Structure formats: C-alpha cells, structure tokens
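Thread title: Can someone regenerate the structure for this chain?

I was given the following input by a collaborator and told the matching structure tokens would be attached. They weren't. Posting the sequence so someone can regenerate them.
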Amino acid sequence: MNEIKYPQFSFDSDLTRAVIELERERTNLNRGTTPSEVFLQLKDLFQLLTSIMSARIEGNRTSILDAVTGAAGLRDSSRSSMRNDGVEEILNIQRAVDFIEQTAATSPINHMFIRELHRIVVSDLSREGDRTPGAYRLGEVSIGRSNHRPPWPADVPDHMSTLIDFIGEEVEPQMQLLQTAIAHHRFLWIHPFGNGNGRTARLLTYAMLVKQGYTSASDYRAVNPTAVFGSDRQGYYDNLEAADSLSDEGIVAWCTYVLSGLNTDLKKLGRLTDQNFVTNELLIPAIERLRSAGGLTSGEAAALGVAARKTIVKAGDLDKALPGSPSTRSQAIRRLTDRNLLRAVAPGARSYQLIFAPNELTVHMVNRLDVSGLLPRILTEDPI
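Best answer:
Regenerated them for you:
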C-alpha cells in the first residue's frame, strides 16, 4: 500500500503562508455582530448552496429555484414522487450533511462512517446512483478528466484502512487542514466506490472540518470546502490530477490550492458575521425584490423589514407596518407565518423572527449574495 506522507515544503512557500494565515483566521471564528438566529439561517442557506455546488461539479444542472423548492418540500415530507433525480441528488447531499453534523463530533471517521456517507449520497438515484450503495467497488473504474488509474478492487479495503489511519492521526492544529487536503486527494486517488466518489469525498472533507472545529451547528464556524472546489471547477480537476503522481511537488500544489481557497472562503464568511452588512445588503434588498415581484404587499414587506432589523419582534412592533385592529394585525402575521416568512421563536410564543430559507425569499437572498460577490462561479453559470 502507498504510504500517506506529508510533503516537504519550504518555510517561505505559498503553502506555509496559507497555513499561517488560516491559523490567524481561525482565531477570528466565533466573533461577529450578526445575531445567531440570523447567522444560523445563513449557514443553512450556504449548506444548501454547497450541496447544489457539489452536484453541479458532477454535471447536475438543477436550478437553484428547483433545489430550494425541493428543500422546502423536504421540511414537510420525507419523499415525493414528483421530485426529479437532479433535485433528489441535491437533497441526498443535504441529508448527508445532516448526518455529519449529528454524528461527526462524537463518532470516529472509519469504514462504517464513510460507507454510510456514500449510501446516503447515492440512495434512490438513477443517473448518479450506485448499484451497491455503501459498499466498496468490486470492479475497475475510471476517472473522468484524469489519466490516473485507481487501484485494483481487491486492494481498495487496504488502501482505505491506510487512509482512515491517516485521518485519525493526532496532529498539531496548524497541520490539520494540510491533513484534510491530503485526505481528500487520497480518497479520490483510491476511488473506493463505483459512483458518487466526488460527492462523498467533499462530504468526508466537511466531516474532518467539523471534527477540527472549523464548522459548527451553533455558532459562527461554518466553513465548507465545497465552496472552494466550486469556485474553479477546472482548477479543482487540474490540481487533483497534478497530485496523482503522489510526488511532493504535486501534493504541495494541491494543498496550496485547497488552503488558499479556504482562506478566501473564511474572509467571505467574515462579511456574514457583520450585522449591518447582512441586514442592509442582503435581507432588506431581498425583501424589496420579493415585494417588487408581487410576492408581498407593501405592509407585509414593511413588517418583514422590521423583523430583519430587530431580529425578534412582537405583534406590537409591527403596528405601523400592519395598521388596524389587533385582530387584523394577527391575521396578517398568521398569513406570513403560514408562508414560513415569519416563525414564532417558540411554540405558542407571540414573538417572531424573519425566515429566509427555504421559502419565497431564498432566491432573492441568493441574488443578493451573488451581487455581493459571495457566490462561487459554478453557482452563477446558469440562471438561478
């Protein structure tokens, strides 16, 4: 089996600079003014967008609108015969992300964990499914856009055991992202499954970041490497192929590509922790776009604007936006909650917060993220 080693690189290299800068950015995680109720919705929105990205890397051309509609339906029912294969592929990735966030912090990354990721990702799919979900391949495979020939099927379990041992090694914090980048490449070098390897590799990388504390379900840590891979799809393939020789030079180039991209992503994430930016550049313009499209009355838009600025509102806070008797105002609020644009902060509570994903506001939020330069190229190649 090919040993997995850290490459040799000089102290004044681009890779060293990327490692140092990422450690600096790590210290800024958990700092921000955006209320947690809003930031966690942004995180969920970006998780949906990165699921779309991961599928698009493999050729899925499902629109963001269709994916959002599917995600909104998933909130109310488990499966629908009306969903198409492209939407279902994206929702499977979402399910795998949920599995990671529920288990990765406490469960080891082992054969069972990786095979379960794969099973979730390819479940019930036609074009992008696998005849043996959750099982290592028993035949030869080829990799599109690559001259690399993955190992023989009989050698896959041993190669995966070597990779899992490498993933489980305790390393210094400044080496963790290097470990993650190397593991991503080696997984794809092995190509352990018949199909779904790319999606599973990106999810495995996300799971490693969860374990390393770069992302969390409860605070400002929300890094997802798929945004890096989706920002330059050809660069992703080219750098992967350069590393297939397993030479120090190729591995260093791959790691530099990944870590530099994560640096860029963390800087973008910093803008989302600024409450003024989120409110004035994303939420309020998105509400106005929905109103202009005929999706809201002026009063409803004004009410949502108040909720955007105050984060948590009571019915009395909306009296100017929704004038009339308390009963009339309650009916207007009920219409907004029925559309999932407002939500009670707790069952039976009369305090509400703005909801922007997944619902009618989501595509307008995506548009604002695009205008603000926060979306990778792969999400802007096709109409939203």
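The radius of gyration is 22 Å.
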